[in-house]
Amino acid sequence: MEVIEVGNLRKQYRDRLAVDDVSFTVERGEIFGVLGPNGAGKTTTVECVAGLRTPDSGTVSVLGGLTGTALKERLGVQLQNSTLPEKIKVWEALDLYSSFYRAPADWVALMERLGLADKRDTPYGKLSGGQQQRLSIALALVGNPEVAILDELTTGLDPQARRDTWELIEQVRQDGVTILLVTHFMEEAERLCDRIAVIDSGRVVAVDSPAGLITRVGGRQTVRFRPSRPVADAVLEALPEVAEVRRSGEQLVVTGTGDLLLAVTTALAAAGVTPAGLRVEGATLDDAFLTLTGKKIPS
Ligand SMILES: Nc1ncnc2c1ncn2[C@@H]1O[C@H](COP(=O)(O)OP(=O)(O)OP(=O)(O)O)[C@@H](O)[C@H]1O
């Protein structure tokens, strides 16, 4: 069953077209990712889904078309740059937010799950960036939502806190919550998302599983090595298997398809070059993203 349906969404801010034409559906129990470069229109899209912005045209339906209070009861939202009053304490924020819902979660348990128990009496303004982020996730989940919208979930968290948050989100999904996740991080998208909409310049360029997106790159591989002596790019570029030759420090990075490794090593042997530290890598979600959008997301 579809929990979120977005059809031909369009949103303009004055002279800036933020969302041009975005359509996707999210199934119950899914973690659905919205991935795209800066300014692609991800936040605007999910704000429209959350009912916080009115689209200029197109349709948005959440949980069969709920609106107003009925929707707020069943939807949890964590938005980028949402701030709380400096002086509100962690427990006060959780207690206050839980009072907005008829059947809230146990906020004490949630506070513990997010590693905030020892910050219970700390004012929001005195929390670190990562702790503020974790509190905002807790506040999105305190209403026991059926659908959670999480925008840049782990931005600002250190690697350990990021991994802990991913585990938490996996647990939340196991509880049956449908999650719409905006992210910049390929690793996060690959680890968490069942399906991903890749958005670029306000349009959906692909919707697929992470593996499906990678397959679209068409078996692209990368061979890396340090040549024992200088070798001209043209030697490798002449091979039909080779699409691109780059240099990264002392390393040569050769991208291509087919039996790339054999073609490259044979050509190097013919040129009297030994490849040191030879590594072969398959396509990644980064490659798929680059192919689909022509842009690279900084990690
Ligand atoms: N309130 C606003 N008023 C005017 N322009 C806006 C507003 N909000 C966003 N924009 C512009 O609309 C475009 C899409 O922004 P949006 O925040 O939706 O993209 P995004 O993909 O979430 O980007 P980021 O990853 O940088 O958050 C951008 O060019 C942005 O500058």
UniProtKB/TrEMBL annotation:
Keyword field contains ATP-binding: yes
Membrane topology: Peripheral membrane protein
Coiled coil regions in record: none
Domain ABC transporter: 4-226
Residues annotated as transmembrane: none
Name of the protein in question: ABC transporter ATP-binding protein
Lineage: Bacteria, Bacillati, Actinomycetota, Actinomycetes, Streptosporangiales
Statement: the UniProt record of this protein carries the keyword Transport: yes
Organism listed in the record: Streptosporangium fragile
Subcellular location: Cell membrane
GO molecular function ontology, one term from the record: ATP binding
Alphabetical UniProt keywords: Antibiotic resistance, ATP-binding, Nucleotide-binding, Transport
Entry-linked InterPro entries: AAA+_ATPase (IPR003593), ABC_transporter-like_ATP-bd (IPR003439), ABC_transporter-like_CS (IPR017871), ABC_transporter_ATP-binding (IPR050763), P-loop_NTPase (IPR027417)
Pfam family, one: ABC_tran
